[in-house]
């Protein structure tokens, strides 16, 4: 990569990282020619080098000064850049869990349909709530399949496996998961009209859908859209109510049994999976804006490990156990940045933007979430009707495409792999 200089005013802010090592500078100038050899460097230099490596992979622009490097983020990340970054993080996670995956891959294949079965099935979805270890294992092995990195979810969560009851042995169509919503999302809070106090009271009536997708061969038949439809159904609300009917909030002592809305995000901007998902002339997945691109997905686990090593050498321990919260990665980065003297806010604020989608489950969701209605007035979305609409609107047309039919028929469960 060539050195680049920027005129005054071209970028209001940039990330400054002090670098003293000539070998690291040589790598940064031409990463395609040199290996990043940091084994003999002080831990501080190792962390800086790994951060720069991660940012170079994302096409951040580089400006060399004496003993420091200025890096400027691109105006936007294209889909391929995001995919490449996710692939790096995903490969790290797959590598760490390879033994577990190898042990369970046959189990996954035993729960898949072949292409002929799926293509000729009437497709009758049934929802299975993960409770046993076997069910959680099946969910986990299928979650590794997608391009986005696998991560555990802290807080309330409901994992679901969707099976096809119309095929012998009820093979898996796809999986979904609902979890505790992120505390503060400006776009969501503005949409609802929340202030901090009202949000604190009523956030429990929302959930985030952090997994929605189909597995082969149903993914080729737009099974991902089917799973998305199912999440809007009456049956999902009933599952939620049953799970939390006896749960109360610690602060207010309120029963957490009413689910009035679901929020989810796309991986790459506008989502083909959620796009145009209508029922009864209503848009089920309503785009409400984009995240601010604040996060840690653009930094690899290896970089985080070296940051933690730096903190440990300074006598600072930041846990990653249940209850430590989902922001532990950010706390590691912030603390390391304070030690190294660079702007972590700027670094964290240039991750990938995602489109946010809102799924209203009640006609008066906004009034209920603001305390102006005592009980939700739910939409009536029976899963059977939603599935029937999906077949008519999406599946039947999909089956007319010969290239898709050919791909479906070619699939055999023994072909399934996550790496």
Note down, in words, how this protein is organized.
- The protein has 419 residues and is an alpha+beta fold.
- The protein has 16 helices and twelve strands.
- The chain has a seven-stranded mixed β-sheet, sandwiched between helices.
- Helix content is 39%, strand content 15%.
Q: What's the SSE blueprint?
A:
Blueprint: E1 15-18, H1 22-29, H2 43-57, E2 61-65, E3 68-72, H3 79-96, H4 98-109, H5 115-120, E4 125-129, H6 133-143, E5 157-164, E6 172-179, H7 186-192, H8 196-202, E7 206-214, H9 223-231, H10 234-244, E8 261-265, E9 278-279, E10 282-283, E11 286-290, H11 301-313, H12 328-340, H13 344-348, E12 355-360, H14 365-369, H15 383-398, H16 402-410
Parallel strand pairs: 7-8
Antiparallel strand pairs: 1-3, 2-3, 4-5, 5-6, 6-7, 8-12, 9-10, 11-12
Helix pairs in contact: 2-11, 4-6, 9-15, 11-12
Question: Which labels suit this protein?
Answer:
419 residues, alpha+beta, 7-stranded mixed β-sheet, 3-stranded antiparallel β-sheet, 16 helices, 12 strands, disordered N terminus
């Amino acid at each position: 990569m060539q050195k680049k200089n920027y005129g005054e005013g071209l970028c209001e802010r940039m990330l400054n990282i002090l670098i003293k090592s000539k070998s690291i500078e040589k790598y940064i100038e031409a990463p395609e020619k040199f290996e990043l050899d940091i084994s003999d460097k002080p831990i501080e230099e190792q962390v800086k080098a790994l951060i720069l490596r991660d940012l170079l992979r994302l096409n951040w622009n580089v400006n060399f000064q004496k003993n420091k490097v200025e890096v400027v983020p691109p105006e936007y990340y294209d889909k391929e850049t995001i995919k490449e970054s996710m692939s790096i993080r995903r490969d790290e996670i797959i590598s760490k869990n390879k033994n577990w995956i190898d042990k369970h891959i046959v189990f996954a294949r035993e729960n898949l349909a072949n292409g002929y079965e799926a293509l000729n099935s009437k497709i009758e979805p049934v929802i299975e709530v993960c409770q046993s270890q076997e069910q959680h294992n099946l969910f986990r092995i299928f979650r590794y399949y997608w391009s986005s990195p696998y991560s555990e979810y802290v807080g309330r969560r409901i994992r679901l496996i969707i099976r096809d009851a119309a095929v012998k042995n009820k093979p898996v169509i796809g999986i979904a998961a609902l979890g505790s919503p992120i505390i503060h999302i400006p776009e969501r809070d503005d949409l609802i009209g929340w202030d901090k106090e009202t949000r604190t009271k009523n956030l429990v009536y929302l959930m985030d859908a952090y997994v929605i997708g189909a597995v082969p061969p149903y993914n080729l038949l737009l099974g991902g859209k089917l799973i998305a439809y199912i999440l809007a159904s009456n049956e999902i609300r009933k599952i939620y109510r049953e799970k939390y009917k006896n749960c109360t909030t610690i602060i207010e002592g309120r029963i957490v049994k009413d689910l009035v809305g679901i929020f989810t995000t796309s991986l790459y901007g506008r989502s083909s999976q959620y796009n145009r998902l209508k029922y009864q002339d209503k848009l089920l997945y309503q785009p409400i804006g984009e995240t601010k691109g604040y996060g840690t997905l653009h930094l690899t686990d290896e970089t985080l490990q070296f940051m933690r090593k730096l903190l440990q050498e300074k006598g600072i321990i930041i846990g990653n156990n249940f209850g430590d919260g989902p922001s532990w990665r950010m706390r590691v980065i912030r603390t390391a940045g304070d030690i190294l003297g660079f702007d972590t806010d700027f670094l964290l604020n240039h991750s990938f933007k995602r489109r946010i989608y809102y799924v209203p489950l009640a006609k008066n969701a906004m009034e209920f979430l603001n305390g102006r209605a005592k009980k939700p007035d739910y939409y009536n979305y029976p899963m059977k009707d939603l599935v029937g609409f999906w077949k008519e609107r999406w599946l039947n047309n999909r089956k007319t495409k010969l290239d898709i039919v050919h791909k479906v028929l070619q699939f055999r469960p023994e072909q399934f792999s996550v790496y």
